[in-house]
Design brief:
The protein is α+β, with helices and mostly antiparallel strands. The chain has seven helices and 22 strands. 36% of the residues lie in helices and 27% in strands. The longest helix is centred in the N-terminal third of the chain and has 45 residues, at 3-47. The protein is elongated.
Amino acid sequence: MDFASELRTIIHQVRKRWRMKLAVRGALAVAGIGLLVFLVSASALEAARFTPGAILTARITLALAIAALVAFFFVRPLLRRVTDEQVALYLEEHEPSLQEAIVSAVEATRASEGTDASSNALVRKLVETAVRKSEEIEHGRRVEQRPVRRYATAIAATAIAALALFAFGPAYLRNAASAMLVFSRDVEASVPYRIDVQPGNATVSRGADQVITAQLAGFDGEEAALMVRRTPDAEFERVPMIRGENGGFDGMLFDLRSSLDYYVESEGVHSGTFTLKVVELPYVQKLELEYHFPAYTGLPPQKVEDGGDIAVLRGTEVRLRAVPTMATPGGELVIEQGESFGLTPDADGALTGSFKVDKDGLYHLEMVAPTGERVNASPQYTIDVLTDGAPTVSIAKPGRDTQASPIEEVFVEARADDDFGIRNLELV
């Protein structure tokens, strides 16, 4: 048996297990401290509301931190070179029962190179003794088993804790993981919180009113504000928005006279900045409505000087007259469901048209601009169909059962009420 070769194998295996311990310990340090760096970065991202700049900074910070941790706790210890004598001394320190046999054998083997045969025989005997004692301690396998097992358990516990945080912790941790670790997406696409704004960049008519709608995505907020800047060097002014029926927010800008910039803000999250370009386009300056009710009501036509929203009986014909802010060759009345009715210009430049109300909905007016393009020329107005209730009849006199002779006259007083009028009342 070649005991010298066996001794070299033992030293090699001990060195290998020692490096394994360093690697597992380094992995634990990288995982634990890396998790702390991630949690701090995630909290910072949440405080900054995941702006693109904050996401980019967090990505760079996390990458540099992980690289530094790997270099310091993993690569640096593994690059350390140790001699056979140092490995033997390390083994002796952890297995005192060897009584310096391994150290003596290694030193003797190195010193015996080039010596005479009698000295080599003595060295072989020393090496044989060291190998025999090493067999009694399983060649040092027990030296690193316990710390390696301990470090591996700690790594598993760290991984379980991280998974529990991501699964059951705050939503911003999952958002941060997606934003910082998925490098295939650009920074803008990684923002989990956003505000979708309509109409965004748009061209509107001078003097028009413009509705701004905002839908929160990825988060919820109790309030939202429309921030408006009317000149490039002015400060943004805050305009409150109200909660809409679909869970979003609505705001209104009235009587636009010049172009402006705007964005929507909620819970620290900002939408992009958009521009409303105000130009000379036709728009409704005045809207007159005339209701022609169904014939069975017996009601005369009703004129509304300052029209807009409509609430009438089903079957009512609505005739409208729209006075535009500038001359236009024509336009259309557009109903939400896709129906449209033409508007024709009068001699005085006003547009007239009509339609019959048969269901609830929304409508707005469109007019032809000087460029030939058809543009929105009014806000959205509502159409509400009213229900025609049944009439009620009450007998005031005599008001009770009575008896009368064949020649006696009986005076009867009756009253009929209806929400849209009574044509006749008969006594049966």
